[in-house]
Amino acid sequence: TLMRRCWAEEPSERPDFGYVKILLRKFNKDIERSSNILDNLLSRMEQYANNLEGLVEERTQAYLEEKRKAEALLYQILPHPVAEQLKRGEMVAAEAFDSVTIYFSDIVGFTA
């Protein structure tokens, strides 16, 4: 491409300005034939907007999936009412019990 040739490390491999000018004029004529600058700009903006809409939709779906996984984990490790309060951003009041039992166990090979 023209840009790559202009960036050539060896100066003798780079095109002279006259050649670049001819190519740019030819390129501009091709653009003018197909549409004017405003049409080209609007077309590019539409493509950009469509691309952004797709990215937003993709990221939204990924976010919702991760949120669902986090909520499922929350419901597995906490009682349902406590998990609901945490989801709503509420403070969870500590509960007092007269008597409790705490059981610790180790399954051989499970934590190894």
From TrEMBL:
One of its GO terms (molecular function) is peptide receptor activity. InterPro entries: Cyclic_nucleotide_synthase. It comes from the Eukaryota. GO terms for cellular component: plasma membrane. Keywords: Coiled coil, Lyase, Nucleotide-binding. This is Guanylate cyclase. Residues 31-65 form a coiled coil. One of its GO terms (biological process) is receptor guanylyl cyclase signaling pathway.
